[in-house]
Amino acid sequence: QVQLVEYGGGLVQSGGSLTLTCVTSGFGFTYYRMNWYRQTPGNERESIASISEDGTSANYADSVKGRSTIFRDNRKNMVYLQLVNLKPEDTAVYYCNIDWDNYGVYDWGQGTQVTVSS
Q1: Are 88 and 63 in contact (CB under 8 A)?
Q2: What whole-number percentage of the chain has pLDDT above 70?
């Protein structure tokens, strides 16, 4: 059974930073490109960061480029997202999953809420 458990969100002030963690199990983690996604109420979920299977390459949405770093630990089946210089528009629920462009997605975890105050 696939499990995706995200944590590390919270309430931060504008300009602050957070590192989000995703613990995965139940699938061949090392064989998949992994993404972080986020969703705000009333909006579609968007992919904001993607990392290759071996962790050597990453891509970012323009909205977070230069302010985020995705990385992974293939020994622990975990993927992380470091966010810096947070802005109120980063307020969202953040999720991890496999890369939906290439594979579709597994059932979503509960996500982790990030709230950035101005």
Answers
A1: no
A2: 100
Instruction: Name beta bridge partners: 81.
Output: 20, 70
Tens of pLDDT, residues 24-73: 999 999 999 999 999 998 999 999 999 999 999 999 999 999 999 999 99
**Cβ neighbours around 59 below 10 Å, total:** 15
CB-CB contact of 69 with 82 (8 Å): yes
Q: Sign of the CA dihedral 56, 32, 64, 3?
A: negative
Measured between alpha carbons, how far is 108 from 90 in angstroms, rounded to an integer? 20
Q: How far apart are CA 117 and CA 86, in angstroms?
A: 9
CB 91 within 8 A of CB 73: no
Closest CA to 109 of 78, 84, 87: 78
Residue with tokens 């909006």: 43
| Phi, psi values for residue 69, rounded to 5° | -140, 125
Q: In this structure, what token pair is assigned to residue 79?
A: 């993927």
